[in-house]
């Protein structure tokens, strides 16, 4: 007996030392099969017919290559989609005879057919969760063992390919989850006949205990008497806390036992104190160790109470950030876990307490770090919805499988506090499955919050509290306003959770952001943010030194970097001396937008958290990141977002942002305080752009917990003109700054000297005519008798109508003869989604064909760069539109005009071929240049075309007024 125990111990020490140990079901006696394997890429799908998975046939193949496991096969075969056959050998020690052996895979994407020594082992479908097969009867003990896998990877880009009945986008995959082959670890697990298949720990913080369920299989043909030993240790100190021994009988087949274990002096797990416990379960039979499994867990409770998130009984305001899960070299996983450690560290340092890995379960090593470093995590399966994966008869079973396996894999994780099952559901089959899968999730894991759908597109989001099967209504909101957080957009954030009557009573204008909102319920803005380019020169230099040239991240970074540099050198060299100037400006706009969205969210008392999109970018979402793909911060984005995340912040709003001289500007200073109330002094100073003070205030305040209004003041602008800065800060009794904030507003002095000559008007909106009349600007109505020397100003209704056809014929003839026609507003049909395809927009009822593209930005940065031109007299030029241009900044831009833009739009396609099907993996589309203001030759005349939002803002925003006056002056004084 001593000899046997010594042998088992030796096996443990010599084999486990070479094993990648994960917290998830870490068996004691394992043999790692990570390392160098062989692979044959079966491009013509002949491996099944040719039985390539048989050892002799494999070795006879002429195209055998080496591949490291774990890794994605795209690292050695560019963009490979289809089938590959893997092979490796290993030796089984003679001591394994009469033992039970399993081959365990942490994840193989997507379908894995497993063979051992030319014997069929089994098949598994699903690319992101673990599986195992019993193989002891197939092992060789006198010669090497040959393990082969025929793997069918996901089909994503080759839309005509169908393999084994599986076509493009039919499997659950999403962005950072695109991985082919054996991309996580493999091992052999050796036990006696009592095998532990699962250890599930449900923490009970209130009672300082853990409910432990041990699932085991008795591979004997008779009942067996077993002693189950459970020990719990503090993870950090390895201090033994408690032990428990249970005598039990296992019948042949599957068995389960459940017990409660009190944990003396229990320490709760939280982001500030990530206290972890190790639990080891040993099964002894016949006085010998049969199996031993270790897990890691934490004691914590995350729930909703009084419409707020609570962690361990205390209210917590959730500050979350997306993680796209794309890495520069490993693609799906970092080749060095220090990169993962760095991204979590930077997220915490930026003030985030939660990470939302985007639509695929992170690798176990990443979750190990999340547990250890202390960050809340939203768990979600590899399901995006939003029409993906595509509808097939297999969709329901694949959805159920992904949800169930993901929860079972990660339900012991201290960091995972909530399951998010779906995202933005549109399809009937998934809508009707939501309740079913929520109940399945509840049965698998009673202890966590369950969110049925992020975004609430189907019916409005619902959450299920721990241990509850009855749902609670929940507002889960997604919004991407672009860079312009105007007062109107700010109010949309403030309106979440209120009735229409309540919004009117509070002075909150317009409808709130979100789908299917309900008043008076817990609200979470789970998607917000903007985007900007990384410093491509710096990032691509690192790719050239350390990257893999064939993987998509290297390629699409190189593509965008080179294309942007070409555009900046050819189109905008007179504005940006270096590409870095352009990237820095974009990042400033991105950072300001993120911060403003966070402020608006935090100032709504109905909202209990938010999620910024995203910590890192990747694929077609790469612009959203606070960090580049190498996990280096984009400084302006990271620092401004970090500032907005701080426990105590100030926010300033001015009404309006751009004022007419003589119009009072209302200044509102508010505070958000996640900590205890503190007394302090509020200092507010208003200065002009030269630093001269216009107004100041100093008063003692109570910086109250949650939300407070600290100052409301009206500024007389009758003697003001230009840009003004509002500086606010709160100091404590020692003069230390508790919180500070800087904001600006603009005042426009009116001028009667507009230097406008004769022009004719064709206005279908009424806005332009009314503005001209109100400002006593004379004009004539355009008709067939209008002189060819009289420029024409046109404002058509944005929505196409029949009257525009007649007007278009007149204007086209007028320009052809030599006239100047200026379109301040014209009709267009915007891009629309239909059956997974994004159509291209186009102008209609116009003298020439004009293609249109959306250019707000959403999660991607789009720069509308203003040249120095008479149209922009008295306005900022040689820079991208921001701030003062907030209301007139275009939402849609013209492309392929044969004229140099006066306002140049620089962007790239998010959907390379405009289809939903291909917004995956290979990255973004090409850089494109658009125009928001151009002067185009047409016949003997000219067309001046603008997509700026001037007409809707006339008389409301002095910037719109100024632009119109400048345009009229420009065309009438040529």
TrEMBL record:
Gene3D superfamilies (UniProt xref): Galactose-binding domain-like, Glycosidases, Immunoglobulins
Domain spans labelled Glycoside hydrolase family 2 catalytic: 303-461
Domain of life of the organism encoding this protein: Bacteria
Stretch forming the signal peptide: 1-23
Keyword Signal: yes
Residue ranges occupied by any Glycosyl hydrolases family 2 sugar binding domain in the UniProt entry: 78-152
InterPro entries xref list: Beta-gal/glucu_dom_sf, Galactose-bd-like_sf, GH, GH2_Domain-Containing, Glyco_hydro_2_cat, Glyco_hydro_2_N, Ig-like_fold, Ig-like_GH2
GO-annotated molecular function: hydrolase activity
Chain ranges of the Glycoside hydrolase family 2 immunoglobulin-like beta-sandwich domain: 195-300
Keywords, sorted A to Z: Glycosidase, Hydrolase, Signal
Family: Belongs to the glycosyl hydrolase 2 family.
Protein name according to UniProt: Glycoside hydrolase family 2 TIM barrel-domain containing protein
Organism of derivation: Thalassotalea nanhaiensis
